[in-house]
Amino acid sequence: MNPLLIPYMRGREILLMLALIPCSLPAPAQDPLPAQPEINWVHGQKAEAYGKIEGSPYYGEWGMGKIVLKDGTVYEPVYMNYDVYKGKIHVKNQQQGLLALHSEIVDYVLWQQNGDTLRLKAYSGDLINLPQPIMENAYTRFYEVIYDEGKYAFFRLPVKVVDGAKPNTSAADIAYTTKPLEGKFRYKELFVLRKPDGSFQLLARRKKAFLQALSTGGESIKEFVKTEKISFIRDEDIQILLKFADQQPF
Q1: How far apart are CA 65 and CA 34, in angstroms?
Q2: Angle at 234 between CA 230 and CA 236, to 5 degrees
Q3: Rounded CA gap, 116 and 16, in Å?
Q4: Which residues contact 217 (CB under 8 A, 6 or more apart)?
Q5: Nearest to 82 by CA among 107, 53, 103
Q6: CA angle (106 as vertex; 73, 237 as ends), nearest 5
Q7: What are phi and psi of 76, to 5 degrees?
Q8: Is it the case that residue 130 has pLDDT exceeding 80?
Q9: Among 221, 227, 136, 230, which residue's Cα sits nearest to residue 186?
Q10: Where are the domains of the chain?
Q11: Which of 23, 78, 150, 246 lies deepest, with the highest CB count within 10 Å?
């Protein structure tokens, strides 16, 4: 088009002409994943897909963390999440994609979530005396340490189960996975108290349950709960209560 004609054109015509001029804008830059150490392939394998299961298998949001293996190997920092359903720590990086680390080789992880640092401990033989099966069709292999500073300890066991799961019908599916291909993830929590004698007890987060479990403390525990207005749904209050129980001569 002759540029001398532009002054005689109406505004709508100018806009239409500009819209027809080919142009290319740079794609918005995507934030790369943080620099991370490479995971030894002996420790981590490619994570598996879930098919058509609705919802998320993860415990929280993706965040930075530290992974300590039972052989002393440390991976830090790593961009990680906890796959509750399969009981594996997932690590995502640019070099290797999405990897899964099994609880058999992991000792514990420290994981940043909403400004807090969560400590996830891998199962060992310490919880073997709990009633079975407590996980339904879940494969939970880590527990969150809420308190572990003395004679008592208190753990959260996150569990993901699949509601409405349909059985596998494909021979290929059966050969490569034992997990249901369809359904919906549902989250629930179990809580475990470790007592001074080393035994473990599944415990509801209710006043009556705690007073019974800490009954060796006598009236001092009851009075402390009343005076401090302990809320059994708050992790911080549970920590305060168990720290007090640890100080009692029993």
Answers
A1: 11
A2: 80
A3: 54
A4: 245, 248, 250
A5: 103
A6: 115
A7: -160, 135
A8: no
A9: 136
A10: 32-203, 207-250
A11: 78
Predicted confidence (pLDDT) per residue in 21-57, tens digit = 544 444 444 445 667 777 765 566 677 777 778 889 9
- In sequence order, the 6+-apart residues with CB closer than 8 A to the CB of 80 are 62, 63, 64, 65, 67, 89, 90, 91, 92, 109, 111
Q: Identify the bridge partners of residue 58 per DSSP, sorted by sequence position.
A: 83
Greatest alpha-carbon pair distance for the chain in Å reads: 98
Q: Are 152 and 245 in contact (CB under 8 A)?
A: yes
Closest CA to 160 of 184, 196, 193, 128: 184
- Fill in the amino acid letter for 233: I
Distance CA 64, CA 58 (A): 15
What is the reported pLDDT for 206? 95
Would you call 30 exposed, middle or buried from its count of C-beta atoms within 10 A (0-12, 13-18, 19+)? exposed
Instruction: Give the Cα-Cα-Cα angle 130, 107, 109 (nearest 5 degrees).
Output: 105
Is the Cβ–Cβ distance between 56 and 62 less than 8 Å? no
Q: What angle do CA 87, 91, 92 make, to 5 degrees?
A: 140
- Where is mean pLDDT largest: 110-119, 167-176, 239-248? 239-248
How many CB atoms neighbour CB 183 within 10 A?
Answer: 20
